[in-house]
């Protein structure tokens, strides 16, 4: 017989299933099976989980223990001083009935994920709450998605290079986003939500098959996400990894995240550290911004020792309404980005920064003081930096960046376009554009130092310059090895500069060696139009 409550008398207690719990972490231990949970993969165990947690709360807090088994649940709420432990072999799986999931609005918040509902676990205004162990949380996405039907593209395609043929009959539809069953807003929501919480830890668990976001850290403070695995069906739209909305003091470390949308997203959050992570995404590996809920500032963001692969965008920083974003450092990162079929946002850019009015907005906050160093990137389109008359990008630095532009399976059917969705103007959402390796427009104080650019030899002619800058002030190029695109027009220059002032160019070197022919002239190295204050060495 298993006791409902066991007082810890020693420093440690070895629980059934092998989990070791410190007496300093918890003084009470509650096994969900002692409160009626069956874990048979069929019976709905939501009420048993709620009863277990209620008993733990009544005792002043402690450890809620989930042993080996498959526990079908709807929405379960966690509270202060609750430590939820998932033992190896324990799986919390989403009920296939969406009526078993509660509404976000009933708890005073909204906007977590694409659904209006909650997912499996949430905490609201809780403190000292944790989810740990080597078990899994399974969103059961196959129950809520049509596996053989892909989303139709509802965007205006008339401004793309391909026109109505954009993504026409794409090969490999298995990589396109699938359709959800019924009303999108009624599918189960974000798997784990922490709303207005303090002192939160999530460690070692696996989240898989999310049918919406995997985790939302919302308006919370002092949060650690350590060593978790997120393994979602990458065809499921909005199946983000870890999203942070209006939070502060968050550490994400040693995680492996494979998501059908952004792997890590920071919106209106500050004092964020992300390190030692592997990320795979159909959208951004790392996304900063695109705030649709308020005008909060965001800044003091550190991203280090990260690998991003298979992403539609590697790193994306977006400003679409008020609220300033500043002080971001990205270092020691390997990026591999590519084009995908379907209406995923992004266009194979390793790095994208843009600031312009979003849907329904006229004012735009700033993006400033962003540094990229020690980056190895390979993408199927180039780095994109785009400001606007409402907001000029300021203080962008690339140092020791090695960029390779490659040709992919979808280059012909959707390549040669910029993707700035969402904006107020269809002309600037998804539209035809030449593809330099680095494109910068309306940027002040841009530095390109000790960088190298390579091109796939089979790229179309619209892959043009090593660097194209227009409407800029204070451009520094100090050590750039590059060439024009392999099939670019003869008159194209490595660096093409337009409508700018105050330029310093040092050590601009044609590269690879075959680009250094005796016939290469100064004009082919640098073309300038309405540029003043140019110093070239």
Describe the structure.
By secondary structure, the protein is mainly beta. It is 4% helix and 48% strand. It has a 33-stranded parallel sheet that branches. The chain has a two-stranded antiparallel sheet with strand order 1-2. It has a two-stranded antiparallel sheet with strand order 13-14. Helix 3 (522-525) links the parallel strand 38 and strand 39 (526-536). The radius of gyration is 25 Å and the shape is elongated.
Topology summary:
Layout: E1 12-14, E2 20-22, E3 29-31, E4 40-44, H1 46-58, E5 62-66, E6 69-73, E7 76-78, E8 82-86, E9 90-94, E10 121-124, E11 127-133, E12 136-138, E13 145-150, E14 178-180, E15 192-195, E16 198-203, E17 206-208, E18 215-218, E19 221-226, E20 229-231, E21 242-245, E22 248-253, E23 256-259, E24 264-267, E25 270-281, E26 284-289, E27 298-311, E28 313-319, E29 325-337, E30 349-355, E31 367-379, E32 383-386, E33 393-405, H2 411-414, E34 417-419, E35 430-432, E36 438-455, E37 467-482, E38 495-510, H3 522-525, E39 526-536
Question: Can you give keywords for this protein?
Answer:
single chain, 537 residues, 33-stranded parallel β-sheet, 39 strands
Question: What is this structure, in a nutshell?
Answer:
With 537 residues, the protein is mostly beta strands. The chain has 3 helices and 39 strands.
């Amino acid at each position: 017989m298993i006791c409902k409550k066991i007082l810890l008398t020693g420093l440690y207690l070895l629980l059934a299933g092998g989990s070791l719990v410190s007496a300093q972490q918890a003084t009470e231990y509650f096994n969900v099976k002692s409160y009626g949970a069956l874990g048979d993969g069929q019976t709905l165990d939501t009420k048993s989980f709620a009863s277990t947690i209620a008993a733990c709360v009544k005792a002043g807090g402690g450890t809620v223990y989930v042993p080996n088994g498959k526990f079908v649940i709807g929405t379960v709420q966690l509270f202060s001083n609750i430590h939820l432990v998932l033992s190896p072999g324990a799986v919390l799986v989403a009920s296939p009935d969406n009526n078993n999931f509660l509404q976000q609005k009933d708890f005073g918040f909204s906007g977590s994920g694409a659904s209006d509902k909650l997912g499996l676990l949430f905490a609201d205004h809780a403190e000292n709450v944790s989810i740990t162990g080597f078990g899994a949380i399974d969103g059961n996405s196959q129950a809520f998605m049509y596996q053989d039907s892909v989303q139709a593209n509802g965007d205006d395609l008339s401004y793309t290079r391909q026109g109505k043929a954009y993504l026409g009959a794409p090969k490999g539809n298995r990589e396109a986003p699938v359709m959800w069953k019924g009303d999108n807003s009624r599918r189960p929501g974000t798997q784990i939500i922490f709303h207005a919480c303090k002192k939160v830890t999530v460690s070692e668990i696996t989240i898989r098959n999310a049918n919406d976001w995997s985790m939302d850290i919302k308006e919370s403070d002092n949060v650690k996400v350590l060593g978790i695995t997120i393994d979602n069906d990458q065809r499921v739209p909005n199946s983000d990894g870890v999203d942070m909305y209006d939070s502060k003091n968050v550490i994400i470390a040693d995680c492996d995240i494979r998501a059908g949308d952004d792997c890590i997203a920071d919106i209106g959050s500050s004092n964020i550290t992300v390190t030692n992570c592997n990320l795979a995404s159909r959208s951004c590996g790392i996304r900063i911004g695109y705030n649709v809920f308020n005008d909060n500032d965001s800044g003091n963001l550190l991203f280090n020792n990260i690998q991003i692969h298979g992403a539609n965008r590697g790193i994306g920083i977006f400003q679409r309404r008020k609220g300033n974003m500043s002080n971001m450092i990205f270092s020691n990162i390997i990026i591999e980005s590519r084009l995908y079929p379907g209406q995923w946002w992004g266009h194979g850019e390793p790095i994208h920064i843009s600031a312009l009015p979003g849907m329904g907005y006229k004012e735009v906050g700033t993006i400033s003081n962003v540094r990229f160093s020690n980056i190895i990137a390979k993408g199927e389109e180039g780095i994109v930096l785009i400001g606007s008359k409402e907001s000029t990008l300021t203080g962008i630095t690339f140092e020791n960046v090695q960029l390779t532009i490659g040709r992919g399976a979808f280059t012909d059917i959707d390549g040669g376009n910029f993707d700035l969705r969402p904006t107020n103007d269809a002309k600037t959402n998804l539209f035809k554009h030449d593809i330099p390796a680095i494109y910068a427009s309306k940027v002040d104080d841009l530095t390109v130092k000790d960088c190298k650019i390579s091109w796939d030899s089979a790229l179309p002619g619209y892959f043009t310059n090593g660097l194209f800058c227009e409407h800029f002030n204070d451009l520094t190029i100090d050590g750039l090895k590059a060439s024009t695109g392999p099939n670019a027009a003869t008159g194209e220059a490595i660096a093409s500069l337009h409508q700018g002032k105050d330029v310093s160019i040092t050590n601009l070197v044609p590269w690879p060696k075959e680009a250094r022919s005796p016939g290469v002239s100064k004009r082919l190295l640098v073309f300038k139009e309405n540029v003043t204050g140019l110093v070239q060495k």
